[in-house]
Design goal:
441 residues; binds coenzyme A; Citrate Synthase, domain 1; 18 helices; 3-stranded antiparallel beta sheet; mainly alpha; single chain
């Protein structure tokens, strides 16, 4: 039965008006009532269903066919393999821009001029420190082998308790301040979680370094460590590529939690929790584990057969809910991988990955399902070559994605059409029945 009491036998026949190309007409065959609504950019309002019958709902598990918001931040055409932020192609941003410039673009809608960029960089640089109690009291409370992503998710939520003004989400000045703090402090939290998990002392932010350079320094500094500029640039490109990807699972979590007017730290923590799942940001960890398990190029055909038979797992780093073409970020990452390997030496798993990609791209199973490499297929290899432990991979993803979450959070709060998120359900449980006393069960 549909929640709200609609008939279980309701039939919805949706017909697209052949002579009226920009409208859709929906007829309720139970009543003969008809509504006609406009189709704009391939979307029609679900309020049409409400107009037809307020007790009628659309069943759409995983929101496969549902647009839950309007957004002007990121454009994605999965069939054509196109990704643009505020209109700018990801390829151009990855080649010419920096992560902080892209962050500004995502948050403000336009590229900054020289003065704006300089001020933004200075502001971020001056907000990288965290309260000493975060490190000394909060982080020290974790078990010695705590997973860095678990620590990170908790640390992001805990950070909000240091800023009582964070709950003032209706105040633009307060929102901007929290956004700045979150963007700036993520690398500090991330490196803190790593160093704790391997027992190394914390390294304070260095205001003389760039955003990616400071992060690498906080991660790896022992003695006279110097950031290699090629790795610094590769890190920045990886940050750009992960900055936003419209309504994915983590961003949707951000919007859903943010819609309750929770503070942005809590919302970002929820988004990071979603990101940590193996089908989302955790996939690159899965890729590296999978490649290590395959062990040798010669084992690739047998592995592919196992995936196809359904007896093995999935081919991690392949397939995407939206991309039914090569993920444009995967192309850029593949190139960045070679740049990194020039410094670090080739990751021995690369040959297995290349063979796997070639085999899958020529196999009918993957071709017919439009399964192509996604952003995670090569990113794990780069991270591993740069020395990051597998357990840090999703944390690395969360650092730049924070700005995407925050751009969507801002947009959500400014959107007069949005309310607290509250989907309906299709109840499939027992009908009403009387409580049975224990003695009679
Ligand atoms: C990303 C992902 C969750 C998208 O899933 P989805 O849009 O729900 O697609 P589905 O699970 O409906 O899969 C469609 C078909 O392709 C198959 N498929 C999808 N991804 C596959 C993969 N990586 N390996 C093998 N088969 C795969 C499914 O088995 C299904 O086949 P079927 O029609 O015979 O049942 C999925 O492709 C996946 O699990 N990929 C591996 C994890 C990964 O790399 N995630 C990172 C995303 S950036």
């Amino acid at each position: 039965m549909l929640s709200g009491g609609a008939s279980p036998h309701a039939i919805i026949r949706v017909t697209s008006g052949s002579n009226v190309p920009d409208t859709i007409t929906i007829t309720d065959d139970r009543t003969g009532k008809t509504v006609t609504v406009p189709i704009t950019d391939g979307v029609f309002p679900a309020s049409a269903i409400r107009d037809l019958d307020p007790a009628l709902y659309i069943y759409d598990p995983a929101y496969m066919q549902t647009a839950a918001c309007k957004s002007a931040i990121t454009y994605l055409d999965g069939d054509a393999g196109i990704l643009r932020h505020r209109g700018y192609p990801i390829e151009q941003l990855a080649e010419h821009s920096t992560y902080l410039e892209v962050a500004y673009l995502l948050l403000n809608g336009e590229l900054p001029d020289a003065v704006q960029l300089d001020r933004w960089k200075t502001d971020v640089t001056q907000h990288t420190f965290i309260h000493e109690n975060m490190r000394k009291r909060f982080v020290d409370g974790f078990h010695y082998d705590a997973h860095p992503m678990g620590m990170f998710i908790s640390a992001v939520a805990a950070l909000g308790t240091f800023y009582n003004d964070a709950k003032n989400i209706d105040d633009k000045a307060s929102r901007d301040k929290q956004i700045l703090r979150l963007v700036a402090k993520m690398p500090t939290l991330a490196s803190m979680c790593h160093r704790f998990s391997v027992g190394l002392p914390f390294v304070y932010p260095d205001n003389d370094l760039s955003f990616p350079g400071n992060f690498l320094n906080m991660m790896w500094k022992i003695g006279d460590y110097q950031v290699d500029p090629r790795l610094e640039r590769a890190m920045d490109v990886l940050f750009i590529l992960h900055a936003d990807h419209e309504q994915n699972c983590g961003t949707t979590a951000m919007r859903v939690v943010g819609s309750s007017h929770a503070d942005p730290y809590t919302s970002c923590s929820a988004a990071a929790s979603a990101l940590g799942g193996p089908l989302h940001g955790g996939a690159n960890e899965g890729v590296v584990r999978m490649l290590a398990e395959i062990g040798h190029m010669d084992n690739v055909p047998a592995f592919i057969e196992e995936v196809k038979s359904g007896k093995g797992g999935r081919l991690m780093g392949f397939g995407h809910r939206v991309y039914k073409n090569y993920d444009p970020r995967a192309t850029i990452i593949k190139k960045a991988a070679y740049d990194v390997f020039e410094v670090t030496g080739k990751n021995p798993l690369l040959d297995i990955a290349l063979k796997l990609e070639e085999t899958a791209l020529n196999d009918e199973y993957f071709i017919s399902r439009k399964l192509y490499p996604n952003v995670d297929f090569y990113s794990g290899l780069i991270y591993q070559a740069m020395g990051f432990p597998i357990s840090m991979f999703t944390v690395l993803f969360a650092i730049p994605r924070t700005v995407g979450w925050l751009a969507h959070w801002q947009e959500l709060l400014a959107d007069k059409e949005q309310k607290i998120s509250r989907p309906r359900q299709w109840y499939s449980g027992a009908d009403a029945r009387d409580y049975v006393p224990m003695a009679s069960r």
